[in-house]
Amino acid sequence: MCTAVRIAVRGRVQGVGFRPFVFQLAANYQLTGTVQNNMDGVKIHVEGAREAVHSFLSDLKNKAPRLSKINEILVEEAEPENKAEFTIIASERSGTSMLVIPIDSAVCEECLAEMNEPTDFRYQYPFINCTQCGPRYTIIEELPYDRPYTSLKSFPMCEDCRKEYEDPTNRRHHAQPIACPKCGPKVQLFDDDGHEIHSRIPIMDTIKLLKQGKIVAIKGLGGYHLCCDAANELAVTALRKRKKRPFRPLAIMAASLSTIEQLTELTNDERELLKSPESPIVILKKNNHYPLAESIAPGMNTIGVMLPYTPLHHLLFADPELSSLVMTSANPSGMPILYKDEEACHYLKGIADYYLVHNREILHPLDDSVVQINDGKLDFLRRSRGYVPDPFTTSKDVTGIVAFGGHQKTTFTIGRNEQIFVGPHIGDLENIETIDHYQHELAHLLKWIDTPKGLAVLDVHPGYHVQKLVQEYNFSEVMEVQHHHAHMAACIDEHQISGPAFGIILDGTGYGLDGNIWGFEIFHGDAAGFERLAHLHYTPLPGGEKCIREPWRNAAAMLISLHGERGLELAKAIFTDRVSEIDLLTKMMERNLNTVHAGTCGRLFDAVSAICGVTKVSSYDGEAAIQLAELADEAISFEPYPFALLEKELLTLDFRAMLQGIALDVLAGKDISKISGRFHETVVQAITSAMEKLSGKNPNAEKTIVLSGGSLHNRYLRKRITAELTKRNFKVFVPENIPCNDGGLSYGQLVVAAAKRSASQCVLEYQQKLF
């Protein structure tokens, strides 16, 4: 008996070989009909024997291409159209967009095999790709995702590529970036003056230059990298000097997993991350035989490593003597990622010796994603290439909500129906270039996602640039969300926690509702609202931001404010070269001049780091805390320093005894690693004690806790806090797919706004029923 159905498939179903998959599935079951991309996803009309149609629907759901992600399949009966065959028809560009924008993916094994096959017509071609790999988001101009709306539109297909592109049985059927040496993009090598080095094989010449210790700017998938031989100390040192990046760790790209195993203590989970289609940078522990230049990650026990994720990258490792390359974003400090050729040549003058470029235009730049396995779970430090703009699914209608994020590690987030789209990593909104980059990417995603501009969500900090930025958009309503509530809400929503929970938020800086700087908080509530139950004792930051850039100032101010004359003596004994400046800081605090008060985990870590002599002046955000954390081995048990919990209006964590003990230990010349371990354990035990006390005061509250904030990237804190609270029967949740740092802030802001909007609608409906 013949039956016909209409099918709508929504999710990540464009740019992933979904239509050829449907075509072959229909052929397998001898069905006729059509498949079409449209602004709503993929539309299918299929007809044939009833049992065959049922089998088709089952395989559609269970055997979809590896890069696809089906969110919804809608099936309804249809009138037979008596088609003679099954065909793929042209995309429909009308209608409301429900598309999931395809993500960029690392080159697949099939393409690599062809690239390395001398008889293949794409032999050693650096832009080989298929429906299961290659550029997507970075080359899209308009939707739906078809070649005329990508940066490949300027490369007419040759006869060979056209044949594959039009063959429904070929894995390159409708692979929009399809190309070959005849018709596709090409690479060129330039010197630092912009003169082309005419070469038959530019990539091989680049390898020779790298082996000679040269620094090469390489145009990749989402932007430019600065590259040099990772085993060449002189080259790495020169790169640091030229880029004015003295200490911040550099990422490397290793030729293979076997190479990475020679450098690090690689686990199975980390191996799978490295091999994944997303191919992020993974933070790994160095092993005892680590052979690379020490200046790649100075003073660190860890290193950020990725595998080659484009064909061009793989070709750079053709020489076995070059097994690891520094591969760091080419942007100057504070600037967004460089992706335009003319900008790269301008900004990298005097930094790069040579430029390996290609003529495939990057329309949307993407930084490399950065992740680690932290206490057995995924921990995103930066969510970008390979993951953006893949949506999250939530339980509320978030249509029309746009969250603008914060000031550092900025992202924006857009809501549509029950989908949440987190934009790419933007960076710190400190200059016009980064702000322009933010607005460019936001404009494109707003257009593509096609959701009304109903509610804009901002951080409450009055000094954040997003407060001004939102005025350039025509939103019907603006809502402000407290920084740490957004962190808490993001974790609550990620884990779909129903009902109130405790939130422990350990962070650097967030504007508090009392006008002070928060960042060491214990809340209770949900996405719609919270109650602040406990916090770190406030201490002054004389000079404000200068205390953050120069942690010794913060440390001296903490000691003096907590211990008076004794603290002043300790500060001068530790910072012997800053005595006159310490006297000035004391006067500023006494007169409350240019002084704010803060109780944050980040500033506490900064102070201890400076007292220990680890980092007195920071060269990058978070350096003091990161370097101190590197000294604390989570596998060792440490005795905590003394601390106090003060029963004030709010429970207050007081670490004055700990800080004095640390200062005395430093002056006594005790081991800094042990001091760091004891400090970390003190924070753990103070939080655990505070939670026991608060839980005892609220015996009816569910023992559910979410942990978030940038300090939760710290491996020791995440592991030990989770262990101690779990031991006391708390159920602990941590961010896994959303960064716990400010890269996840916009997601949390949107979640809070949706919850508040839903709550107000419920109240309105109730009032309407009453009256």
UniProtKB/TrEMBL annotation:
GO terms for molecular function: acylphosphatase activity; carboxyl- or carbamoyltransferase activity; double-stranded RNA binding; ligase activity; zinc ion binding. Keywords: Hydrolase, Ligase, Metal-binding, Zinc, Zinc-finger. It comes from the Bacteria. Residues 200-386 form the YrdC-like domain. Residues 4-90 form the Acylphosphatase-like domain. It catalyses: an acyl phosphate + H2O = a carboxylate + phosphate + H(+); C-terminal L-cysteinyl-[HypE protein] + carbamoyl phosphate + ATP + H2O = C-terminal S-carboxamide-L-cysteinyl-[HypE protein] + AMP + phosphate + diphosphate + H(+). Pathway: Protein modification; [NiFe] hydrogenase maturation. InterPro entries: Acylphosphatase-like_dom (IPR001792), Acylphosphatase-like_dom_sf (IPR036046), Acylphosphatase_CS (IPR017968), ATPase_NBD (IPR043129), Carbamoyltrans_HypF-like (IPR051060), Carbamoyltransferase_HypF (IPR004421), DHBP_synth_RibB-like_a/b_dom (IPR017945), HypF_C (IPR041440). GO terms for biological process: protein maturation. Its EC number is 6.2.-.-. The active site is at R19, N37. Belongs to the acylphosphatase family. Belongs to the carbamoyltransferase HypF family. NCBIfam families: hypF. This is Carbamoyltransferase.
